[in-house]
Specification:
The complex is a heterodimer of chains A (289) and B (306). Chain A has 14 helices and no strands. Helices cover 76% and strands 0% of the residues of chain A. Chain A folds into 2 domains: 21-68, no CATH class; 76-288, MetI-like (MetI-like fold, Orthogonal Bundle), CATH 1.10.3720.10. Chain B has helices spanning 2-20, 25-52, 65-68, 77-109, 117-129, 132-143, 158-173, 175-186, 190-198, 203-231, 235-241, 254-263, 272-298, and strands spanning 264-265, 268-269. The longest helix of chain B has 33 residues, at 77-109. The chains are: A mainly alpha (289), B mainly alpha (306). At the A-B interface, α1, α2, α5, α6 and α7 of A face α2, α4, α5, α6 and α8 of B.
Chain lengths: 289, 306
Amino acid sequence: MTSLTKDRDLRAHGRRKPRMSIVGIHVGLILYTLLAMGPILLIIMNSFKSRRAIFDSPFSFPNSETFSLEGYETAFDRAAFERYFLNSIVVTVASIFLVVIFGAMAAHALAEYRFPGNTLMGLYLAVGVMIPIRLGTVSILKLMVNLNLVNTHISLILVYTAMGLPLAVFILSQFFRQVPRDLKDAARIDGAGEYKVFWLAMPLIRPGLAAVAVFTMLPVWNDLWFPLILAPGESTKTVTLGVQVFLGQFVSDWQAVLAALTLAMVPVLILYVIFSRQMLRGIMSGAIK
Amino acid sequence: MTQKTVTETVETKTGGSAKRWRIPRHVIVFLAPAVIIYTLFMVYPLIDSLRLSLYSDEGLFVGLDNIRELFPGGNLSSSFWNALRNNFVFFAFHFFVQNPIGLLIAVLLTQPGLRGRGAYRTLIFGPTLLSVVIVGFIWQLILSPLWGLVETPLLGKTATALPTLSLMSVWQYIGIPMMFFYATLVGIPEDLLEAARVDGATGWKIFWKITFPLLLPMIGIISIITYIANLNAFDLIYSVQGALAGPEFSTDIMGTLFYRSFFGQQLQIGSTAVGATVATAMFVVILIGVLVYLFGFQRRVTTYEL
């Protein structure tokens, strides 16, 4: 809300007295945008071309002569991308859900109640923001072997939940602190129990929940390390690992490689185009906290 | 009278504190799931890894013998210091290229009167979303001499491989500092800048005297986030150069060294003890960075409430 007004102020102000050449700014931004998007477009474009055309004219769009779907046929024949996607979706959605709900519960407890060890508990949970969970891999693998969870989605979900919780608690407790006390006390006077109060506060911190969901989703969806170590089996492979293995095997088949890359990127990019506003807002509100 | 009140206060106080030492059940219920999962799958493995670095693979306590291998004279010394040096080069590229460019884009995006900033922001942030594996392969194809867009095999030469990979990573992650700086810049009140303008300050002066000091805490946060992320980077090097981080280990960083020492590669047999030792070393290096940030930077920099 405030940032919107501010944007408008900036704009209104600029119309009166531009301080930096607007044209120059656009040129700079367009150049960088091309640098950011160009390589991605180049890959997508060439994935629809015949082998010859990929090498002869990499920068031209596919036309009726050069159009070919051979790469996609190889990709679908040789690898179960549908399954990899499903695996990634299961792992990511479950991790986000657990991080958001458990993170919110813990953050609410830390923000709302004064109890012995409150600060210490907050610190204990916050330490995890600074230390990468990968450093514990040796013992995580041992633990998963003992629990008989190797090559299961559960092992990944548990690790990713543990990985996402510290930041979630940290961000969400800032949001919970801003929930008006009067509101919660009013609910209590009306006879609401502490669990009810928590559920009443949840919708009020939606921006925080969105930020946490975004911060959890990206590293989980894109992770290669833990799928490689904890769940490398064909039936549990996530899309990141699946693509990595496929690309390694088909390095010399350019059509297949380009197709596989496009397949792995496009769903993410489509989701991003749809939700970019919410996602970027989530990142921003997380950044300011 | 006074006496009585005092005793009463004391009584309520002690009564209160006796009560305060009991944690209400709902607080426990709220905290338990997060604390249990976090402790079991993050804290315990970290501590256990540190412990394992003091043992041999056969489970014998060897004290600091494993750690000693990392220092001159030890078996792992040359690979460890090579990986550490490469990792700092990797970080330097992010620090000196990614963060300044991210800041520059954020500054451009917040210039008054700019149209289409939403579109720019969305497109420039795009690569950040992609998996590192995909980014690695995209650039591997584009830079491949087979395709002929670039003539020299940048990824195949020891001198250029690491800078090239670093810049690939910079290309991907530029969106993060951009968004964080953008969020901070939007939060600076226009009145403040207007006041400086009225006083006759020019663009550059305003930036260095007002905007930059307000950005400093964010610069620190982004730097430490980058440092931690870089020191446990792995995916990019592994996808593009393989676990051996070629050519001739010129792109070997802590993450790939950790992977190799734990799982083994080719002639080298994997070892829990060596894996845990490398992890411990990474932990120490990261900890030093965090301490430098907390005490060398964060304590000294002034944060302004706006």
